[in-house]
Here is the input.
Amino acid sequence: MKRINRTRIEQRVNVLSVGQSGDDFEKVDAVLKDMKQTNLVRAKSIDEAQQILEQHRIGLILFDYLVCDGNALDFFKILGNKGLDIPVIVISEQESEAVTSHIIEAGLYDYFPKEIISKKYLPLSMTNTLNRYRLEKEIKEIKEAMEKVAEKAFRDELTGLYNRRFFVEALGNEVAKSKRYGAGLTLCMMDIDDFKKINDRYGHLAGDMVLSKIGKLLKVDARESDISCRYGGEEFAVVLPNSNLEGAKSMSERFRKLIEGKRFEYDASKFQVTVSIGIAKYDNSVDQTLMKLIGRADQALYKAKEEGRNRVVCVDT
Here is the structure.
């Protein structure tokens, strides 16, 4: 059976030794000479280490806890401020629980006293550190990729807003919060007036441009806590947590005027666009289902259309 070498570094790595005394550095250098995949670089201070980090790609740092111009905690802060993600092993005169606790919180990978720098322990610590670092990086990348996929599944590609699927889920969550805590909740349903005429006169690409720009304007204009969505076609929805009818109407009027005053351009054509908005406030005694609340906001939107478009209408419970 083939024996697995658990202290073998698979890829070539530049190792930076910071602050080690001459004798300690020689011990480290002697150990690493047997590790063919490592290249050792020395810095006597934090300042010198920063210069080396700017000039070389360092994959692992061996840091003497106390150096002439600071300590490991100072060094961790510098790495963080520079956005450098490099695994660090701290080597010290003696172990201290208080010191260990602080540097673990700061991002330490391993910590041991100088007296056990040896061909047995140092390669093992370095290999474990690099393996752990690579594993954590892979997990982070996978997590970020999964989050991007999930985010894409809930985003409308044209407008950048959340899609109808997310809207229904988010509205359900906000209704549950409103029931539990009694916080105000309003829903705005918004429709681009005479959108078919835009498509017919200027083409569907012009219509897509209008949808995209209105989506971006809505995202910027809404509060950070608001949930702006493309409900479907030329219709948008905004969920406003912790709000009342007055606040929702004020926001809607501001946005209606913003769109009314904007000139849209496509190729050589310039034209105006208006929106109609319907608002309903969540009422636990009336809105037994989400569709009931959505229906009442749609009812207000329909009334805004009937009354001449380009206006905001609130529906009573």
Observations:
- The chain has two domains: 13-148, 164-314.
- Residues 164-314 form a domain with the Alpha-Beta Plaits fold (CATH 3.30.70.270).
